[in-house]
Structures are given as structure tokens and as C-alpha cells.
Amino acid sequence: xxxxxxxxxxxxxxxxxxxxxxxxxxxxxxEEFLGPMFFEPYxxxxxxRINSSSVHFALELACGTGRVTRHLRNVISPNAKLIAxxxxxxxxxxxxxxxxxxxxxxxxxxxQELPFVDNSIDLVVCCFGYMLVPDKLTxxxxxxxxxxxxxxxxxxxxxxxxxxxxxxxxxxxxxKYLGEPLPEIYKLPFSMNDDGEIRKDLQRAGFSETxxxxxxxxxxxxxxxEAANGLAQxxxxxxxxxxxxxxxxxxxxxxxxxxxxxxxxxxxxxxxMRALITEAWK
Length: 282
Fold this sequence. Notes:
Shape: globular
Helix content: 40-55%
Number of strands: 7
Largest sheet: 7 strands, mixed
Strand order of the largest sheet: 3-2-1-4-5-7-6
Radius of gyration: 18 Å
Number of helices: 10
Distance between the termini: 37 Å
Oligomer: single chain
């Protein structure tokens, strides 16, 4: 039952179409393979940076399949309100199925148009979502608007592709199939790696105090085969590959598995990754 579809918005503006369509089979592959390999380590890292005593109302943007949501709910007070949101109904359905509706409000929200009044939220969290937002400055300004004075915007974005080894292997293989010019979605997930640019845009949106830190982790998968399956079928480029030639998927998975096993181990597969974690205060 998708309870989040019943929630009412404070305005009737049309949600902007997502840059990448996370629908169909993608959310389940995303959660099963990419969730533990890429997103769980940073979900834990982000949750450690929250001062729970100051949070009475938290908003999560781009919650995906709920990896960060679970940690947020455990970190903040049981009495604090938590809204977890995404622009994709299919991703939210997986998250709600995993975590249920107890003490979590699920809502479809465009980060560029937040349906909340000014100065009403203590914490806004967005892990690996802002890269996909078309108008980032507007999204930052919206977060600033709804935050209470002293409230924090906390978000993570991937560093350069070459610092994220498993993704680099996958995209190097895929690039040979897609050819030039590469579609926009090829670059988007790793497009927010300039801390100076992020800081400048946050200042333009109103944030006066900002800390940005590069954080290294390792991506771990039980096998290189599972990592290759997740990258090929749970990632942002899947629909583009299927659109061009569905037969490519099995070829890509096999090649990626071989490359990952050779460089980072067949079982387990352990590869370095790096993200930027940004904290900004109103």
C-alpha cells in the first residue's frame, strides 16, 4: 500500500521530471546490490554528523530505497517528526516496504519546490540526490527557506569518477557501448565534485557557514559477479542501455565482473570510493 501517494501538498505545482528514471526493476536491484555496496557506508557516516538534541522535525530528500532513512529514524528522537521523500514513486515503494509507516512520513517531493512553510524544519538531509536535480541553486534556496535559523543542511555527493573504483570500471566498459557523444545521465552521478562550486552556490542561496569534507570508504560486495549485476541493472544508465540494445546488458555484466575480479577481488570484491559530505547552516 503506497501510503505516501495519499499525502497532500501545500501547493499544486507540477513536480519537475527526474533527470534519471528510477523505475521498473531498477529500485529492487538498486537496493539489493548497490545499497549495501555504495550507500550504506555513507548512510552511517552522515547519521553520525547529526546533533539529535536539536532536531524536532527532519526532512530527507532523495531518500531512494530508505538506506539513510533507517539511520535517521534511529538517530533522532522518537518524538521527532521525520518526512522521507523522493521524486520516484517506485523508489519510495521499496523504502516503505522495507521500513513501514511507523514514525516515518513518506512523500513525493521535488527538491526544487518544497511544500513546507518558511523556518519550519531543523534538519534537511540529501544523500546522493542533488547531483540529479536540474536547478541546484533553487534546491539549495528552498532548503534554506524551510530551515529554522540554526538549522542544518547535510548532504553527500560523489567525488570524481576516478576516485570511485567500481563505478569507474563499470562506466569505462559502458562507454565503449554507448559511444560519443555520451548521454547526459552518464556524467550526472559524479557531476558535483567541486567543493568550491558547491560552497559558492550555497552562499548564493543564503548559507553563511559551510564545511565540505572528502570522505574515503570502501565498497564491498560478496562477489564481483553481484557487484557487476547491481551496477548493470540497478544503476542510472540501465534504461539507456536497454533502449539501445537489451542484449548488451549480459555482455556488460560479464566484462565488468571480469575487470572487477581482476582488480579488486572475485570474492569478496573490495574497492575504494570517495564522496564529499557537506554541512551548511542557516
